[in-house]
Specification:
Strand order of the largest sheet: 1-2-5-6-3
Largest sheet: 5 strands, mixed
Helix content: 25-40%
Order of helices and strands: EEEHEEEEHHH
Structural class: alpha+beta
Radius of gyration: 25 Å
Shape: elongated
Length: 144
C-alpha cells in the first residue's frame, strides 16, 4: 500500500521503513521506556490482505521518552493475588481442589521428613499448581 506522506500532519511510513529514532510502544517498553505523554510522531502501515484494513503502528520519539515507573508495593501485591487466583482456577479446571493447594503450600507434616519418600530432596517450583500435580502424581482417578 502506498500510504500518503502526511496524514493529518503526522508522517506516514511504509512497514519497516520508519526512522531509527522512532519506536512503537512495545519497542519503548522493551528498552525500559514509556512514551511520557508525547504526541504520536509517526505511523507505520502494513497490509493485512486485500479485504482487511491495514495494520497501523503508532511511533513515538525515543528522545522524548521517559524511564518506566517502578511498580508500587500495592501493585506488586495485587499481581501476586491475581496470579494466585489464576493458578487456583486452573487447578480446579484440572480437578484439583483449592484445599489441596493450600495444604501443599503449608507444612507437609513429619511424614515428609524421611529420606525414603519419593520426593525427598524435592524443591518447590514456586508454582502451586505444578507442586500439587507433582506431589499428587499417584492419586487415584488422575490420568495423564
Amino acid at each position: 500500500m502506498n500510504a500518503p506522506e502526511q496524514q493529518g500532519g503526522i508522517p506516514v511510513y511504509e512497514w519497516r521503513a520508519g526512522p531509527a529514532h522512532l519506536r512503537t510502544r512495545r519497542q519503548l517498553a522493551a528498552e525500559g521506556l514509556r512514551p511520557n505523554g508525547q504526541d504520536i510522531a509517526g505511523k507505520l502501515y502494513r497490509s493485512r490482505g486485500s479485504r482487511r484494513e491495514p495494520l497501523v503502528a503508532y511511533l513515538f520519539d525515543v528522545d522524548k521518552a521517559a524511564p518506566k515507573r517502578p511498580a508500587t508495593a500495592a501493585q506488586l501485591a495485587a499481581l501476586v493475588k491475581a496470579t494466585r487466583e489464576h493458578q487456583l482456577r486452573a487447578a480446579e479446571r484440572h480437578g484439583v481442589d483449592r484445599a489441596e493447594i493450600d495444604q501443599a503450600t503449608g507444612d507437609p507434616g513429619p511424614a515428609w521428613n524421611t529420606s525414603t519418600s519419593a520426593l525427598a530432596g524435592y524443591a518447590g517450583t514456586g508454582n502451586a499448581v505444578a507442586d500439587v500435580l507433582t506431589q499428587g502424581a499417584d492419586r487415584e482417578g488422575m490420568e495423564r
